[in-house]
Amino acid sequence: MPHKPVLLEESVSALLVQPDGIYIDGTFGRGGHSRAILERLGSAGRLLGFDRDPDAVSAGRSLAASDARFSVHRGSFADMGSVLSEAGLLGRLNGLLLDLGVSSPQLDTPERGFSFGADGPLDMRMDPDAGESAAQWLARAGQSEIAAVLSEFGEERFARRIARSIVETRGEAPIRSTAQLAELVARAVPKREPGKHPATRTFQALRIQVNGELDELRRCLDQVCDALSTGGRLVVISFHSLEDRIVKRFIRKETKGFDFPKGVPVRAMENHGRLRAIGKPARPSAEEEALNPRSRSAIMRVAERLP
Q: Is residue 101 scored above 90 in pLDDT?
């Protein structure tokens, strides 16, 4: 299935405040958002794409070959600060777009191991050339650690049952395939959520764990205010509550300003935040949800850098 960018019009409109500005698409994927940005970007504008996935980077290089305004960097968007600093662009960024989570090509390629829809190796790495796979992590992690990851990152209420089953099963034979894990979870879960495969939360949790996704997001957000120029925009599209909670709290903290102890003589005008929230959180329309069911859980938040 080709990847359909979620909230495409809404995100690009919120992001592109300076037609000849400098922008980052932190999650290039197959370039849906990037191409829409380039359509509106002026001749002097620049767009830098980031992605850990080598297939995405290959697609990015093809785009870069046809448009001199675009370049692609293989790596995490959490490396944004160092890349901008080396290019002399720190503090000059006009906008950063993050479309979090996994892309349709990754889900729909069994060899990548992201989905239980078709059997494949239990990998789940965004960058298959770095780090350990989900199978390798499951082979070494303790039962309590597995349960904690499933509970925290998957919000799985049967985390202990599933973790116990994983440890018992691997004692007999390694867990190496997506179908093997999905069947194991289905047997371990006593109750099923309507319309949802019982392994959905487990696969989400393992993907987040293997790729360090929440830590990556936090590291990136810590660099946002130093990276953005005055009036620059942060646009983040999240797909589950864990990501959105991190983004929401970050914007709230940076909107509030420094939390001085009581009694410190600082006037409000001297202690404004570095960001201001723009509008209310946006969600896909009913029409978009009908055309792209994977957009249903999406939520977009926007913030602007203050002087």
A: no
Q: Tell me, yes or no, whether 2 lies in a domain.
A: no
Residue 104 near residue 81 (C-beta atoms within 8 A)? no
In the block, tokens 């990015």 appear at: 60
Instruction: Find out whether 122 and 173 touch, Cβ atoms under 8 Å.
Output: no
CA distances from 115 to 42, 132, 197, 293 (A): 39, 17, 11, 16
For residue 195, the 8-state DSSP code is T
The 3-state secondary structure of 48-114 reads EEEECCHHHHHHHHHHHHHCCCEEEEECCHHHHHHHHHHCCCCCCEEEEEEECCCCHHHHCCHHHCC
Tell me, yes or no, whether 179 and 296 share the same domain: no
**How much is the pLDDT for 1?**
46
| pLDDT for 261 | 62
Residue 3 lies in a domain: no
Q: Return d(Cα 213, Cα 55) in angstroms, integer.
A: 19
Mean pLDDT of 66-76: 96
Are the C-beta atoms of 246 and 217 separated by less than 8 Å? yes
Q: Assign 3-class secondary structure to 99-129.
A: ECCCCHHHHCCHHHCCCCCCCCECCCCCCCC
- Out of 163, 191, 211, pick the residue that ends a domain: 211
Measured between alpha carbons, how far is 60 from 2 in angstroms, rounded to an integer?
16
- Give the pLDDT confidence of 233-279 residue by residue, as tens digits: 999 999 999 999 999 999 999 998 766 566 555 554 455 799 999 99
State whether 227 and 266 are in the same domain: yes
Report CA dihedral (211, 213, 216, 222) to the nearest 10 degrees: -170
Is 18 in a helix, a strand, or coil?
coil
**80/24 Cα distance (integer angstroms):** 9
Distance between CA 243 and CA 285 in Å, rounded?
21
Tell me the percentage of the chain whose pLDDT exceeds 90.
79
If asked whether residues 200 and 236 sit together in one domain, one would say no
